[in-house]
Design goal:
- It is a single chain.
- The chain has one domain.
- The protein is built from 10 helices and no strands.
- It has helices at about 1-20, 25-35, 40-55, 60-95, 100-115, 115-120, 130, 135-140, 145-170, 170-220.
- The protein is elongated and about 65 Å long.
- It starts with a helix and ends in a 6-residue tail after the last helix.
């Protein structure tokens, strides 16, 4: 538990240092990293920006705008990676991003049901929003609607989290008391959720690897020739 406590503190310190040093550019940079399939949680990034808003160091609207712009910037390379790499790219390299073909099938069902609007909805969902750009490219989503919905959904998400940071800043002492009283319980809950998420995705990734191995074996043997 102490390890995860330290890891969480390091991640938060990194986020705080980047935003404190670079301001809006730092917010955009960190959100771009998150949208490029790197699990750097926006749930830490934008509330800290909101905390600086409460202190008068950042502007509320510009902070949210920087977050949305960063999401768009990070989504573009991920989208094209999926577009040109296709489903085979996900099968080969998805394990490094904790993405599986199951996730792609899930995204495909969302797109079938909601069309391009699915990407707007996914941008306002925790965890899902981080990885949706790669499946969007694989599914050959319309690029400009994808970018537009990414921006709008991310802007709404960013506004909400900036407000959380503002509220947190205004009630800092109360939150500090709660954190120090229940810090291990909070970290324990985060660890359990993280382990469940990883376990679920690793299971699907192993299924993908087995499927890929079977495909390679079939290709190596070639078509069967009846004499």
């Amino acid at each position: 538990m102490e390890f995860f406590h330290t890891l969480l503190e390091l991640v938060m310190a990194f986020i705080h240092n980047v935003i404190a040093t670079l301001g809006y550019v730092g917010v955009a940079l960190l959100m771009a990293i998150e949208s490029a399939n790197v699990p750097l949680p926006s749930e830490f990034i934008m509330p800290y920006a909101g905390f600086l808003v409460q202190q008068g160091k950042l502007n509320f609207h510009l902070a949210a705008l920087a977050g949305a712009v960063g999401c768009v910037i990070g989504s573009i390379p991920s989208y094209f990676m999926g577009l040109f790499g296709g489903r085979s790219f996900l099968l080969k390299y998805g394990k490094w991003l904790l993405l599986s073909e199951h996730d792609l099938d899930e995204a495909e069902r969302w797109v079938d049901k909601y069309g391009d609007m699915a990407f707007f909805i996914c941008r306002m969902l925790p965890v899902v929003r981080t990885f949706i750009s790669l499946p969007a490219g694989i599914l050959q989503a319309h690029f400009y609607p994808f970018i537009l919905y990414t921006f709008i959904g991310s802007l709404i998400w960013s506004y909400g989290l900036v407000y959380v940071g503002v509220y947190f800043g205004e009630n800092l002492e109360t939150f500090r008391a709660i954190w120090h009283k229940f810090d291990y319980a909070i970290i324990g809950l985060l660890v359990v959720l993280g382990v469940l998420y990883i376990w679920k995705h690793v299971k699907h990734i192993r299924q993908d690897q087995h499927k890929l191995a079977q495909q390679k074996l079939t290709e190596a043997n070639g078509p069967r020739q009846d004499l």
